[in-house]
Q: What sequence folds into this?
């Protein structure tokens, strides 16, 4: 990657949460990851050492706030502080997955809004910009008083299904009413209708008896689309409901593979033909399974970093006509 005019140099750092994605981004940018060490002491304290000069540089730190969430977040905070004290020119935080994003409002009395607290911490530590992907609620951008570039995985996901030939007789399905907007966006790209799984009871017990499908899915191929998969229960229930409604084949598609608790068993034993996710969160070997297919979003992040570094608009990343 060529150096822009002026004093700034691009420096790319990776912490511990998603080194594989960071390596891919570095290759896309044709740069080397910068030298830094992250140590964890026996009592859990974190020590970070930056092993090269960052004075005046435009620094990009890649770190997903994923499991272990608090440990990865503290690594990020300490790294930002180290860079600020080392006279970095700009500090750009690349958050492929924004942990705590689901705590974005007070649903009950005396609850915190933790997503806002995370935003406050990132700003107070000294970040100048945040680059993230598929926030659980797009309004989280407003929690920051610094620029936020909210990237989308939907173009990578849509391209995968187009190249796979899953475009005829396909229906995009929202697993609940909250996911209708996202389902409609994918449906627009794939020129497909949408359906909704209407679940009246939040409990898993007898879930299929309490779920109906709004829309025609009989003898159709369905893509159940969501921003993340956590325990897998909601997605597995949606697949069962679609099969009961006569769907011929069912695919799951989500950006963030959290895969907590029994998610792997839920998804592997479900009615899905394939579970398609991205690499915003690194999936350990013990959480991989036969139906899993992982798409990389490294090129999207690399393009965003390059455009931001060169003071160009990132609007080209949202051109729906270029799949």
A:
């Amino acid at each position: 990657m060529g150096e822009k005019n002026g004093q700034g140099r691009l420096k790319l750092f990776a912490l511990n949460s998603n080194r594989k994605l960071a390596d891919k981004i570095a290759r896309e940018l044709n740069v080397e990851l910068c030298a830094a060490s992250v140590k964890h002491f026996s009592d859990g304290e974190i020590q970070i050492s930056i092993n090269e000069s960052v004075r005046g540089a435009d620094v990009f730190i890649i770190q997903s706030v994923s499991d272990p969430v608090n440990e990865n977040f503290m690594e990020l905070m300490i790294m930002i502080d180290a860079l600020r004290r080392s006279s970095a020119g700009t500090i750009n935080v690349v958050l492929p997955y924004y942990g705590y994003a689901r705590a974005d409002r007070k649903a009950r009395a005396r609850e915190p809004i933790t997503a806002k607290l995370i935003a406050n911490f990132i700003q107070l530590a000294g970040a100048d910009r945040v680059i993230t992907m598929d926030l659980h609620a797009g309004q989280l951008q407003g929690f920051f008083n610094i620029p936020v570039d909210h990237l989308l995985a939907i173009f990578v996901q849509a391209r995968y299904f187009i190249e796979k030939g899953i475009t005829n007789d396909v229906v995009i399905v929202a697993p609940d009413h909250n996911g209708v907007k996202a389902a409609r966006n994918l449906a627009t790209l794939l020129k497909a209708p949408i359906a909704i799984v209407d679940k009246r009871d939040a409990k898993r017990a007898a879930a299929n008896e309490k779920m109906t499908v709004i829309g025609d899915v009989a003898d159709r191929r369905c893509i159940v689309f969501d921003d993340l998969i956590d325990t897998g229960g909601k997605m597995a229930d949606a697949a069962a409901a679609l099969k009961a409604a006569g769907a011929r084949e069912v695919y799951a598609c989500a950006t963030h593979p959290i895969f907590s608790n029994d998610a792997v068993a839920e998804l592997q034993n479900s009615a899905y033909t394939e579970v398609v996710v991205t690499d915003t969160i690194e999936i350990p070997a013990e959480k991989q399974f036969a139906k899993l297919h992982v798409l990389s979003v490294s090129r999207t992040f690399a393009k965003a970093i390059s455009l931001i570094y060169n003071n160009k608009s990132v609007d080209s990343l949202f051109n729906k006509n270029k799949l």
The longest helix spans residues 69-85.
